[in-house]
């Protein structure tokens, strides 16, 4: 592996190149467009005029939509008049939605659809007595996971606000969609990483083609799985999202991303456990790790597609309507996460004790551990910045509150994962100083002259078994 031939200066140069590339990605994110665009419908735009401000019905049109809007959320804002502005108020209300979809050809072939769901209205108190802002927390009325229509005529009615403790002063609605400019930015950004990953994968296969599979190290074998998984994670099928009105491209995107994460988790377990054992039978070595990562994959895919699947039949569906099953699956997911961290911590402690008797493997463990620590710090910081104190709440849901806040977050997330794998591919690829299988056969041939016989180094001897 190239890892054994890199000097401290080479590591320094590699680190500088990594930081430079990451800085370029950050600059690209700074120049990127905003992710979400909003269209507000005030009470003065309701047509015709509503009967009562507390109940409606509120009739209005959505903005013109295209596939580059990707998704659309409809949120409601309610303003109440509270004598005590510091008091917190909440109540449940029934929301009825009538939707008449207008297709891109101007027809309404889908007809009128009606839905009715329960929502929670929460009005938080304010500490500033001079603050006249008494708008309650916005709540999501409906969400479409992909755009099928050009416009929508909507009729919304509330049942329960007329019985509220405090009078309702105003009601407004807000449409949130992805910015079409960001959709084009995301398309080209992902496509660029698909192309780069493809060339990295070809380079990695080219430099390893001279070596028999039995001479590949454990890390080199795993990179043959990680690189294709990374290319799928960048989603080469992402353009289909804008060409076809279907939920399948979004589902494949979720599957590819979760699969990439699980392959990385499996890779870390195998490397830390594989250092101290050469007997890597499937049942004893791979099956326990596959079971943990497989259950993690099932839980993550289920949570990631739970609401999306239900919204195909009812855009007003909310996971809180099925809270019992959702919480059960979420608890199962966190149990699998805790099990994984306990297992990998155990493997790390045992391998640290083992490498004292195998100093040859020290550099491999130090390199992977150092890189993983950097990746972990970045991911934790990213989660804290994006979710804040709600990091353990329902962040699997297709809510506007858990989308990327800006282009920087988006490019940094995808950029750091891609750069991490590129560094692994570079470091784990064979160096030019290693003898190929053909050269080794020529060196060890009985007809070879004595002057051509080369005694392999201890590093090559110990590293040859995979």
Structure commentary:
The structure is a single chain. With 466 residues, the protein is an alpha+beta fold. It is 48% helix and 15% strand. The chain contains eleven helices and eight strands. The protein has helices at residues 8-31, 180-208, 218-233, 240-243, 248-274, 282-311, 323-354, 362-387, 407-428, 437-443, 458-463; strands spanning 36-41, 58-61, 72-80, 89-102, 112-123, 139-144, 151-159, 168-178. The strands form two sheets. It has a four-stranded antiparallel sheet with strand order 1-8-3-6. Strands 2-7-4-5 form a four-stranded antiparallel sheet, with no helix packed on it. Helix 2 runs parallel beside helix 9.
Compose a concise summary of this entry:
The protein is an alpha+beta fold and 466 residues long.
Secondary-structure element string: HEEEEEEEEHHHHHHHHHH
Quickly count the helices: 11
Helix content: 40-55%
Give the strand order, joined by hyphens, for the main sheet: 1-8-3-6
Give the overall average pLDDT: 80
Largest β sheet strand count, sense and barrel closure:
4 strands, antiparallel
Rounded radius of gyration (Å)? 28 Å
List unreliable stretches of 5+ residues.
394-402, 442-466
User: For the terminal residues, how far apart are their CA atoms?
Assistant: 12 Å
Shape assignment: elongated
């Amino acid at each position: 592996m190239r890892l054994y031939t890199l000097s401290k200066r080479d590591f320094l140069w590699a680190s500088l190149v990594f930081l430079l590339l990451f800085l370029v990605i950050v600059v690209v994110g700074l120049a990127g467009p905003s992710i979400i665009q909003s269209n507000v419908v005030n009470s003065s735009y309701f047509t015709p005029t509503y009967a009562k401000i507390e109940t409606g019905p509120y009739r209005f049109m959505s903005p013109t939509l295209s596939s580059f809007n990707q998704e659309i959320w409809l949120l409601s804002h309610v303003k109440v008049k509270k004598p005590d502005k510091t008091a917190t108020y909440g109540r449940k209300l029934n929301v009825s939605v009538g939707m008449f979809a207008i297709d891109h050809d101007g027809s309404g072939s889908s007809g009128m659809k009606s839905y009715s769901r329960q929502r929670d209205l929460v009005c938080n108190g304010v500490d500033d007595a001079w603050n006249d802002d008494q708008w309650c927390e916005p709540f999501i009325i409906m969400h479409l996971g992909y755009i099928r229509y050009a416009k929508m005529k909507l009729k919304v009615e509330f049942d329960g606000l007329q019985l509220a403790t405090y009078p309702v002063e105003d009601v407004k609605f807000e449409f949130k969609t992805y910015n079409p400019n960001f959709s084009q930015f995301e398309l080209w950004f992902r496509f660029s990483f698909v192309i780069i990953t493809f060339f990295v994968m070809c380079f990695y296969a080219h430099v390893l083609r001279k070596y028999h599979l039995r001479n590949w190290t454990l890390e080199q074998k795993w990179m043959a799985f990680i690189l294709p998984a990374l290319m799928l994670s960048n989603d080469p099928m992402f353009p289909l999202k804008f060409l076809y009105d279907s939920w399948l491209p979004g589902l494949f995107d979720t599957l590819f991303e979760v699969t990439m994460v699980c392959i990385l988790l499996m890779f870390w377990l195998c490397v830390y456990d594989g250092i101290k054992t050469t007997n890597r039978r499937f049942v004893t070595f791979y099956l326990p790790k596959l079971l943990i990562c497989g259950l993690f994959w099932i839980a993550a895919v289920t949570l990631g597609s739970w609401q999306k699947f239900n919204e195909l039949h009812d855009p007003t569906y909310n996971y809180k309507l099925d809270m019992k099953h959702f919480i059960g699956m979420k608890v199962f997911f966190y149990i699998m996460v805790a099990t994984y961290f306990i297992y990998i911590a155990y493997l790390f402690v045992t391998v640290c004790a083992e490498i004292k008797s195998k100093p040859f493997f020290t550099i491999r463990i130090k390199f992977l551990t150092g890189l993983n620590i950097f990746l972990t710090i970045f991911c934790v910081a990213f989660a804290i910045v994006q979710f804040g104190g709600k990091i353990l709440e329902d962040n699997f849901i297709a809510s506007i509150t858990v989308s990327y806040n800006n282009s920087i977050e988006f490019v940094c997330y995808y950029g750091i994962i891609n750069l991490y794998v590129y560094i692994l591919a570079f470091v784990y690829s064979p160096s030019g100083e290693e003898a190929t299988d053909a050269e080794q056969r020529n060196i060890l041939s009985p007809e070879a002259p004595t002057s051509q016989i080369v005694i392999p180094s201890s590093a090559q001897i110990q590293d040859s078994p995979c």
